[in-house]
Amino acid sequence: MTQPLAERYRERLPLTSETPIISLGEGSTPLLAAPRLSEALGSEVWLKWEGANPTGSFKDRGMTIALSKALEEGVEAVVCASTGNTAASAAAYAARAGLPALILQPAGAVALGKLAQARALGARVLEVRGSFDEAMTAARELAARGTHALVNSLNLYRIEGQKTAAFEIVEELGVPDVLTLPYGGGGNTRAYFKGFEEAGAGLPRLVLGESTSRATTVASAIRIADPVHAKEVEQALVRSNGSVVALDDDAIIDAWRLLAHEEVFCEPASAASVAAAMTLPQKSGHRVVCVITGHGLKDPESVTRLTPPPLQVDPDPDAIADAAR
After folding, report:
1. Is the pLDDT of residue 113 over 60?
2. What is the second-level CATH architecture of the domain 5-57+157-305?
3. pTM of full prediction above 0.85
């Protein structure tokens, strides 16, 4: 049985002997070779497949630590603003901890798969008449009253949990030349940078894929106009000689389709890491790790929009063979 992330890296996490560990079996996610992408990029490409976490996204890494500490600190409930993945993760880990979860989502901006998870797990979901940034402001103000723990990535326990993905990459592969990530709020970039620093084996060059239309992009998980970790991201980019790549929706969707050829089904925002990698100069022997942050079932509406619909056929072998051509 896989050891819980909090136990596996206990000495590197802000845990005490009194911390109750709230775990759903997160972490230890696959690092997948990507031969077709390697050929296309002229580099050795690997995919850190975070969709294999319990609720289908990287958020679970941080949520196990955030909820463990929330329970230890005796809060009454947890609150977050979310475009979806944080909501699903917060709902699951709060349910395991026996705490109420309050989710603030921007009106009309959350993919169905993520909203369904949060609702099914018993979270109280409120649709805010406004943007993600306005929902975040409200969540922070509520948390400041002391009754609710904010479990967005402004909660530094989240960053502590998420940094463990860098440890796993170093243990399995060493430090890559380049690490690519989607860029929404910037918390995951901050976490990976911290993890590589603490691992002490060197830093990869960080390359981040952000949308040219942050407020309206089809990549709903990075539909964040004002990244709350922008300052820390800038510091990480300077230290790693990294960069941000501006991507339109067509580039993100093209990368999403390329990932299908690697048998990886992710939500569109996750493909921003691959789209960013596609802008790198070709360099044989260059080792690149693309972080694939969330499962495709998070956003089933995108599949409906971006793929051909099923064809109706009669239950006849000849008709089926003709339709399959």
Report:
1. yes
2. 3-Layer(aba) Sandwich (3.40)
3. yes
